[in-house]
Amino acid sequence: MVSFFRKKKPEPAPERRYSTEELAAAFPDAQVREPAPATPAAHPVVPNDAPATAERPAPPMSAPLPPDVVGAAMEAEAAGVPAAAPAPAPVPIPALAPRPAPSIPDFSKLQFRTPEQIAADTAANKAAWRERLGGTALARSIGSVFSRNPRLDDDLLDEIETALITADVGVTATTQLVESLRKRMKAREFADAQGLLTALRADLIAMLKPVAVPLEIDAGTQPFVLLTVGVNGVGKTTTIGKLAHRFKSEGRTLMLAAGDTFRAAAVAQLQAWGERNGVAVIAQGQNADAASVAYDAVQAAKARGIQVLIADTAGRLHTQQGLMAELGKIKRVIQKLDADAPHEVLLVIDGTTGQNALNQLRQFKAAVGVTGLVVTKLDGTAKGGVVFALAREFGIPIRFAGIGERPEDLRVFDAEAFVDALLPESLGSAPAPA
Ligand SMILES: Nc1nc2c(ncn2[C@@H]2O[C@H](COP(=O)(O)OP(=O)(O)OP(=O)(O)O)[C@@H](O)[C@H]2O)c(=O)[nH]1
């Protein structure tokens, strides 16, 4: 009961004070405060079908108590003595509406994957990577040192060094890997050559793990604008088609912007991908202003409540200053409609390019601010080792890898699956490094 009084903000303390005798006279037998018996409702009760709210509705206070009674009650409570009751009638206690039952999610509709299903999916994913990369020159050059039964000595380290350089892992990344292994070999950390190769696998995976960060589409950003950039022929338009296939099958609404207004067939190529995936393509034709196409597309996507907009751009050499500046213009124009757009700038890199990919990333990063990478054509190259060099030098997330020409061959980049696809299968079953 006293707690009920607390709900009323105390008025300024009244001048009048009750003596202990007056209080005792009002409550002759109240030495110990008992919980008050329930009193029938005297106020309108909140209907049961009132809108459910997180908070229980505050009881209505239609008959405010005189301030001096409230003040006395609070004082008396502080003194451990019951307060004097209001003279005419006991204060009616409003009945509380029953709290609505909390809504419990229907767990039967949620799909949990069992550890066995997760393991099966992981194995299937690894098998797909191996199927596509296992026979490539990249896999042959790295896998060669693993496939025989080498001895644990400096020759093995030399062989590893040559294999990594041949695979275009790069001199700096290779030296770092080999010198670390050499130190550990001298410290007798490895029992045999197999131990060293297992450590190499773990080091390769550890090098890529920090950049294996999948693209997160922020559902609160509509449209989430993805701008794809890169040099000529790296696979931008094809990658956009594959992304459209992926996003569509994830149930997202999307739209494409045919911003490659330079190459004659690019618009038609994108439209074909759009038709195949049932996705609208905003285009203005060849030689149109790419920034204007992008602007139109963002506006259309906003008007239609589209979740994801993927904008293509013409291929350009990272050394062509004028064309690189055009990317900055596309970005600025889009930002007139959404200051945060583009929300992802994907640089598409041809995995067969080798070390030149480092220069491309450097230039595109300066021109337009790259936030993610797609490395394509890893299915047919001896030079895919550049992925390690890119990871080491820039630390920019590798979102996807192109491991073939089919729509499903654009894979979320998976450090472990990638490394294991390059190594003999027996090593790939070792537990992944933390
Ligand atoms: N094997 C293989 N081929 C690919 C992959 N990705 C793209 N391609 C092929 O690469 C070629 C060029 O792809 P496009 O998508 O036209 O390249 P682009 O970057 O849009 O070209 P530009 O508009 O000229 O800059 C096509 O023949 C694609 O099929 C991949 O992951 N693996």
How would you sum up this structure in a few lines?
GO terms for molecular function: GTP binding; GTPase activity; signal recognition particle binding. This protein is an alpha/beta fold. It has three domains: about 1-95, no CATH class; about 125-210, SRP54, nucleotide-binding domain (Four Helix Bundle (Hemerythrin (Met), subunit A)), CATH 1.20.120; about 225-410, P-loop containing nucleotide triphosphate hydrolases (Rossmann fold), CATH 3.40.50.
Descriptive overview:
Keywords: Cell membrane, Cytoplasm, GTP-binding, Hydrolase, Membrane, Nucleotide-binding, Receptor. Its main location: membrane. It holds the Pfam family SRP54_N. InterPro entries: AAA+_ATPase, P-loop_NTPase, Signal_recog_particl_SRP54_hlx, SR_rcpt_FtsY, SRP54_GTPase_dom, SRP54_N_sf. By secondary structure, the protein is α/β, with parallel strands linked by helices. It is 44% helix and 9% strand. The protein has an 8-stranded mixed beta sheet, sandwiched between helices. Helix 4 (115-133) crosses helix 15 (415-422) and helix 5 packs antiparallel against helix 6. Bound molecules: guanosine-5'-triphosphate. Guanosine-5'-triphosphate (GTP) binds at residues 230, 232-238, 260, 263, 266, 315, 376-377, 379-380, 402, 404-405, 409.
